[in-house]
Amino acid sequence: xxxxxxxxxxxxxxxxxxxxxxxxxxxxxxxxxxxxxxxxxxxxxxxxxxxxxxxxxxx
Amino acid sequence: xxxxxxxxxxxxxxxxxxxxxxxxxxxxxxxxxxxxxxxxxxxxxxxxxxxxxxxxxxxxxxxxxxxxxxxxxxxxxxxxxxxxxxxxxxxxxxxxxxxxxxxxxxxxxxxxxxxxxxxxxxxxxxxxxxxxxxxxxxxxxxxxxxxxxxxxxxxxxxxxxxxxxxxxxxxxxxxxxxxxxxxxxxxxxxxxxxxxxxxxxxxxxxxxxxxxxxxxxxxxxxxxxxxxxxxxxxxxxxxxxxxxxxxxxxxxxxxxxxxxxxxxxxxxxxxxxxxxxxxxxxxxxxxxxxxxxxxxxxxxxxxxxxxxxxxxxxxxxxxxxxxxxxxxxxxxxxxxxxxxxxxxxxxxxxxxxxxxxxxxxxxxxxxxxxxxxxxxxxxxxxxxxxxxxxxxxxxxxxxxxxxxxxxxxxxxxxxxxxxxxxxxxxxxxxxxxxxxxxxxxxxxxxxxx
Lengths: 59, 449
Known about the structure:
The complex is a heterodimer. By secondary structure, chain A is mainly α. Chain A has helices at residues 3-26, 31-50. By secondary structure, chain B is α/β, with parallel strands linked by helices. Chain B has helices spanning 21-42, 44-52, 74-80, 119-135, 157-166, 178-188, 197-211, 215-218, 235-245, 359-368, 403-418, and strands at residues 99-104, 114-118, 143-146, 169-172, 192-195, 223-226, 248-250, 252-255, 259-263, 271-274, 279-284, 291-292, 299-305, 316-322, 337-339, 344-345, 350-352, 355-357, 372-383, 386-395, 423-427, 442-444. In chain B, helix 9 packs across helix 10. Chain B is globular. Classes of the chains: A mainly alpha, B alpha/beta.
């Protein structure tokens, strides 16, 4: 796994976060959507902890 | 960037778990600054604490600045809770409607402290446990039995969710009694289990006495994760558990207010890794408060949970005592090792007849002697001006013929390992209290006059 692949993963993670937020904005308050999006966002945070947060370290 | 060795079969996150320590430090300092900023902006408690110390988040520029940040103790949390925003008080950093989980501490050291978590914090709990379970060999092919009734305490909730996250099959054994749990383990051929050391030994005892089941021979459990008490890091207690179950027993250390911050790996290196990805762990000299980096000196553990947001844990004084190990772990993780696990709580270490005693030292001696039962009790009283310490033990029925030799060995080992002389009381086998979850074996009656 090299830095480029790590950056690719980070790009995908950011895209998931954005997509989740966009979905919530579109939902019009449907709780079935909003609450599940919140769970997705919590998992996205775990991806960020494991990938995005270490991206800028000198690996 | 060097291509790191990708060993996804060994590590939950092979990149992070093998980062050089200086890179981990960079990560920790960066995240420490963020969580301090977060708490400063959102929590009146933290802002007041830091302002009174003359500290602004921007003052934290490097690892060396971290010691400037005032510590938080459990008693401080007690003082601010049960007030608005109710019931958490002003250490809460999110709106109340973002809190999805309520837990509280056990209350053994005083009024329970409430712990709020958001759903993200709850995911973080299971992430911390996923690191430790993966390090202990849990994989998606495992069938994990949890003989515990989850409740208002945080114990084993995250273990359950982390095992699920890894892809294990999880069997919650909560409502069953001990015998039913043993039979269910046998019926379903569970191969892994999580429990307190007291219960691990207690289950084995019940299996043998009441069901005629020898866990090592008749049950399929081959790995056990312990929590809640230091037993799995006490060599003789670990050995007892491993022998009676025919399983590897692994320790972990955590706290409601902190998270699951330390774990033993399959290499069983005689210590616990601190999870450097999720926590910033420092040892402070008990007398001077100086940060201890080198091995061989005991210090108090001060921890920051780097990503916990509802009620941040920043430079929390855990009151636990430990020392760094000298050697790296053969598992390849660069997460530092606490030698021998947590040596004891600073609160538990007490002076008796002028000698400092950690109760775990007594457990190590008792469990190292083959003829003694698992249960024991220590009672400390005052006789006039002098401290008096009594150790109550049970001799295994089959070993009664060796009573004199056992007692001689016991007294010698106690003197050698704890530097104290004890009144020894031999109680009939099975007469001392048995504990379902955590044992309360050390009774210091001097505190109560």
